[in-house]
Amino acid sequence: MKKIEKKSFHTDVVKKTIKIKASRDKVWRKVSNLVGLPTWLIDVKKTIYLSKKRKGVGAVRLITFSDGNKIEEHVVAWKDGEYFTYIATEGLPLRAYVATISIKTKSKNLIELTWQSYLNSKKMTKKQFTEFVEYLSSFYVASLENLKESLEK
User: Fold this and answer.
1) Distance between CA atoms of residues 16 and 75, nearest Å
2) Domain assignment present for 124
3) In whole angstroms, how far apart are CA 137 and each of 14, 23, 25, 91, 132?
4) Does the reported pTM lie above 0.90?
5) Domain, as residue range, for 52
6) Which residues, in sequence order, are bridge partners of residue 118?
7) Residues 102, 113: contact at Cβ < 8 Å?
8) How many domains does the chain have?
9) Burial letters for 98-111: b for 16+ Cβ neighbours within 10 Å, e otherwise?
10) Are 40 and 150 spatial neighbours (Cβ–Cβ below 8 Å)?
11) 25: CATH
């Protein structure tokens, strides 16, 4: 008899860091442009604002991926030139997704960027959740490599 895996809630953290040879201003301008995602995030078709606000707490964006999936995100914390935190409210198989993108100056033209997120799943098997976390992890890595490449030109 095949054991049926019980569905439950799972929690994890995905954290990826990359060093970019560019000025702090250049890196911040790129990552804080909330609808500029198609220029570095993989598989993004378009991003639009759902709010009048364009940056800072209260800005809302809708990301449309190549496969048609849409994710709505709300900025919940913002410190100009340092970090912003956003939550996904629609489009992920999660009850909670909170992510922060932050930058630190390592030297004159070397920036360390960290993208960290906390996730809590909807009911799913441990295997489904592990696969989702692995996917998200590789998505972060590929997107950060794109970002680095675009900024180091």
Assistant:
1) 20
2) yes
3) 6, 26, 26, 17, 8
4) yes
5) 11-151
6) 13, 98
7) yes
8) 1
9) bbbbbbeeeeeeeb
10) yes
11) 3.30.530.20
